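To: structure subgroup
Subject: Chain for Friday's discussion

All,

I'm putting the inputs and outputs inline so they're searchable in the archive.
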Amino acid sequence: MGEGQGEQDTNQAASDQEKIIAVRKNEDGDIIAFKTESGRQLDYLTALDEAKAGKLAHVDVFHKYGRDIIRSEPDGVKENNLSNLDTF
């Protein structure tokens, strides 16, 4: 692997994956919905299903608090963390 190649791979999504560009939060600050680059708005459960199926770029699903949770892929860039995205 050439120098910088790993970083390039992290920033590029597969062509069949959509990137999340904004989130909706409830009054407690919890993310409850997502907006993709194509303009689709996904409630949390729909986004969770799509993330599990590999349809959403740069997110992981993991089990915490007794349930599955969507989180940004850890890449050290705070600006692209789900909680730091624009809201809609």
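Points worth raising on Friday:
Residues 1-10 have pLDDT under 50 and may be disordered.
Helices lie at 5-11, 44-52.

D.
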